[in-house]
Amino acid sequence: MIQKKVxxxxxxxxxxxxxxxxxxxxxxxxRYLSTVGVKIERKPLELDGTALTLVLWDLAGRDKHEDxxxxxxxxxxxxxxxxxxxxxxxxxxxxxxxxxAREFAGDVPGVLALNKSDLTDSWALGRxxxxxxxxxxxMVRTSARTGAGVEETFRRLGQATLASxxxxx
Amino acid sequence: MTATAMTSVRVDxxxxxxxxxxxxxxxxxxxxxxxxxxxxVQQTSVPDPSVFQGLRxxxxxLFIVADGVGGGPGGELASQTAITALVKFLSEAAGCFNNxxxxxxxxxxxxxxxxxxxxxxxxxxxxxxxxxxGARNSPPGPATTLTMAMLxxxxxxxxxxxxxxxxxxxxxxxxxxxxxxxxxxxxxxTGAWTEEQARKAPMGATLASALGGNxxxxxxxxxxxxxxxxxxxxxxxLNRHVPDxxxxxxxxxxxxxxxxxxELVEAALAGGGQDxxxxxxxxxxxx
Lengths: 169, 287
Description:
The complex is a heterodimer. By secondary structure, chain A is α/β, with parallel strands linked by helices. Helices cover 30% and strands 27% of the residues of chain A.
């Protein structure tokens, strides 16, 4: 079985754990419990006739007390960057996160999940902001609450790991 | 138990278990293991054989606590069987922590998870398992919690089933690495119960996942430790009587692992001692 390590990075509270819970367990919880260290989940997928398992490393979000531990990113086959569309500052930190990921994981594929798309009333990004992100990133609007875009995001990541020139076994 | 371990830290580790003030048997178990590389130089022409000493140092540590569920012999046997099966399985797979690199890391995690599944099946086989874990006050079922940390410096891999806990203390801040697998937690996750309802409901503390039970879903995580950190594994006999703030204070006093264990157990007994209590403390001392 092919296994691919996917690291999830982002600022605290962007919904990384909720995306994993939706994708792996088809559930969503309104409770917010910050992740400590790394939580690991597995999800088998079949992509174009190829069976693979995504090993999802849900990393504790960056906050004012602790930065993301770069060593967790070593050996990642892909990175899922998660930003919260209701907090613009979570997008502002994406370039730094990408630099960190490149330092420790190399030039592996990445997808940006612009999360909480169901919260339209408090959406903080204008059309131009989103266009700018789309120009820089392979981006999917997601909602862990409704499930919108979640399956697509992880399938894109899976396909990217299979297609990557840097693909390792 | 202190040993110079892996690069730049010494690990001072100790465990302690106590029957508590109300129970007739102690159903808790713990184990602390040092994991060594197998290489040992038998003979050499090299003038200074001390250059090979590094080959013999401990390369990892394994810490486990288990809390048998229910009264009677079932819980006691379940926690014993779990610890024995895990240690046996991991001893046979001990090479898995050697030559650790990022590509092999998932093999280690799979071995740890396989060890837990093996222990689960062993309990069911030996003690007629498959029974539901049930509430703590209900007739005994052959089931047990399990919280395990394998330390290959600086990384601690944590595999967890049930409501025992793993914490680490860093710079005066205590963080819980595990989440209780109980009905109360599950109901709060789904939004069906508030925290207060979960605390008051008779079923709130019922295990939703246990070795030997009907449901057994290990959660897996990891953390990179730093010199000065303290790792704590405990059964719920500690945290039901000693709040996190007090645990932080006791661990933060900076004594050795043995005195930290003693003080934690004493605090649990002073707080009521209604359950068995077990703690395992590992101090990562700067080397």
